[in-house]
Amino acid sequence: MPTSRYVQTVPPPADPYAGDTLLRSWLTARLGSDGHTAAAARLTALAADATGPLRAAHADAEAHPPVLRGFDAWGARVDRIETAPGWEALRQAAARHAVVALPYQAEARRRWGAGARIVQHALLHVYGPESATFSCPVAMADGAAALLSRPEVDPAVREAWLPRLLATDPEVAVTSGQWMTEAQGGSDLARSATMARPAAGGSWRLTGEKWFCSAADSAVAVALARPEGADTGSRVLTPYLVPRYAADSPLAPARMPADWPAPGIRVHRLKDKLGTRALPTAEIGLDDAYAVPLGDPAQPGLGRMMTLVVVTRLHNAAASAGGMRRGLAYARAFAAARHVAGGRLDTSPLHRATLGALAVDTAAAFVLSGHVFALLGRVEVDGDADAAAELRIVAPLAKLATGRLAVAAASELVEAFGGAGYVEDTGVPRLLRDAQVLPIWEGTTNVLSLDALRAITREDAAKPLLSRVDGALAGAAGPVADALSAASVGLREALAAVVADPYAAGVIAGARGLALRLAHALAAALLIEHAATGDEQAAAAARLWTLHRLAGRDVSADLHTQMELLTG
Ligand SMILES: Cc1cc2nc3c(=O)[nH]c(=O)nc-3n(C[C@H](O)[C@H](O)[C@H](O)COP(=O)(O)OP(=O)(O)OC[C@H]3O[C@@H](n4cnc5c(N)ncnc54)[C@H](O)[C@@H]3O)c2cc1C
Asked: What is the pLDDT of residues 138-162, one digit of tens each?
């Protein structure tokens, strides 16, 4: 008799828009029913792509990481980065679905106003997890577009590049790199050694070494450099736009303008990274590289660069939340198909509580990331000063808290699949690999905690956050209100100690703990706010997040009984 071999049923891919009840209720609450309806066709089309061709493109890009060809067959230096067809398909999809462009489009701003950024956040939530981290060039292109939109930027430079960054025609669209980190200083930008000197016709030349340049295949990059004669320190560093290819190079994409000189750029090597494997991250040498300043190099430029950095930090939060949601949906589908101890895995109270806990954290990450995009929209479209003040503290907090949640969730998700979670072609291991970068780039947890501390002490930046927590308290009751109220009192005490002696070693040592407490209280407030719109999933998540994270209560029994509601 032939032996029978057990084959596990494949967990079906969930539709990331139709199947995400929290995303849908968030869009209705934030955009109104009509606003949500107006976005539905886009999101449905993107979700269909994400569960079909983009998933295949993702697998192809991961399986065929980029390769650097230093020289051509005849010995000419070409520094060509070859990427997989899947990577190109992901680039084209990002352009077609306007993942970068939408919040800049006049039509979108007319339709959704400040909510155009909320629609973009939803697009990223759907696109990011199936993008093989093409979400990184998307983030940097958006950051570059925001920087180029600033009034200080030469209109001719803006007109040459902004339409390309915002193009929805894949033949025209380009992405951007962001070259800040140098080997001697990533977090410590004051140590930046790349120099800029003025050249003819208003252009400049950059010389130096950049240590981590992701999306190095992009047509353009924004590089930080110190203008000749400028002071030491980081404030004076200036953002320059650097075209990556010479216009007459056979490697220059058809979408390059024709009048750029040879760029003076050397790609030394590609990094061999833990994750983000499809994404080319290079070490790049600049030798009198052609560049144009973004704003007046005589004026301190780091503030201008922060326009770009804030946008990429927000994208990082969206990537954290999106990856968590994708992994949760996959783990839930697996648990419905897997049998253990005589029953389906998703009937085990213990595994249900595990999935429920992941769902609560996923909901918290979602509202944090959704909220920062909503704030950014209000700043950009309405010039809203209150939103700008809140964004100052919430941008670093949302980035750091979601990054840490994403790494913890990814580890749990791998375990939720048992051995299959450790096997490459299930697609699960990359969730963990790709999550681990989220707390590192765009500011590590420590660096962002110190940034939040500076904002608190110099700009009284915690005020809008505490107001939001107080506002949520008014809508809370019972043990949730007690937990949030106690958290608010505790935070006020901790903030008073910070303001009293901001440079005390104990205050600095506690910066990360304080930042996480602030972010967790904010997530509780946002979940409570959203629950008030009638969303039962948000109400359950708000209660369990607040009791567990803010009051340290064991909520396992509720996580088990409410698993279906929580996972959406
Ligand atoms: C996959 C990947 C892609 C990247 N892509 C890009 C890119 O496209 N462009 C770019 O510019 N950079 C990029 N980076 C670089 C990234 O932004 C830096 O690695 C990051 O900013 C940290 O800098 P560092 O590596 O110099 O580490 P360091 O700054 O040396 O940090 C080392 C440790 O010290 C801690 N630390 C640093 N300063 C302080 C402080 N003041 N107080 C307490 N603790 C501190 C940090 O938290 C960290 O744990 C990328 C990195 C990765 C991993």
From this structure: 999 999 999 999 999 999 999 989 9
Are 57 and 92 contacting, i.e. CB atoms less than 8 angstroms apart? no
Ligand 1 contacts CB of residue 545 (under 6 A): no
Q: Which of 190, 234, 189, 181 shows the shortest CA–CA distance to 211?
A: 181
Q: Is the shortest distance between the CB of 211 and ligand 1 below 6 Å?
A: no
Q: Is the CB of 187 under 6 A from ligand 1?
A: yes
Measured CA to CA, the distance from residue 348 to residue 344 in angstroms comes to 7
Q: How far apart are CA 29 and CA 340, in angstroms?
A: 40
For residue 159, give both structure tokens. 């007109």
Closest CA relative to residue 409, chosen from 129, 130, 131: 129
Asked if 363 and 541 count as a contact pair (C-beta separation under 8 A), the reply is yes
Q: Over 60: is that where the pLDDT of 105 sits?
A: yes
Long-range contacts for 498-506 (Cβ within 8 Å, ≥24 apart)?
498/453, 498/456, 498/457, 499/456, 499/457, 502/453, 502/457
Task: Answer whether 402 contacts ligand 1 (Cβ < 6 A).
Answer: no
CB of 214 within 6 A of ligand 1: the answer is yes
* Interval between CA 443 and ligand 1 midpoint (Å): 6
pLDDT in tens, 202-247: 889 999 999 999 999 999 999 999 999 999 999 999 999 999 887 7
The answer to whether the beta carbons of residues 407 and 436 sit under 8 Å apart is: yes
SS3 of 302-360: HHHHHHHHHHHHHHHHHHHHHHHHHHHHHHHHHHHHCEECCEEHHHCHHHHHHHHHHHH
Residue closest by Cα to atom 3 of ligand 1: 214
- Ligand 1 pocket, residue 436 CB under 6 Å: no
Ligand 1 centroid distance, CA of 178 (Å): 14
Please give the distance, rounded to the nearest whole angstrom, from the Cα atom of residue 302 to the centre of ligand 1. 17
Ligand 1 closest atom vs CA 271? 1
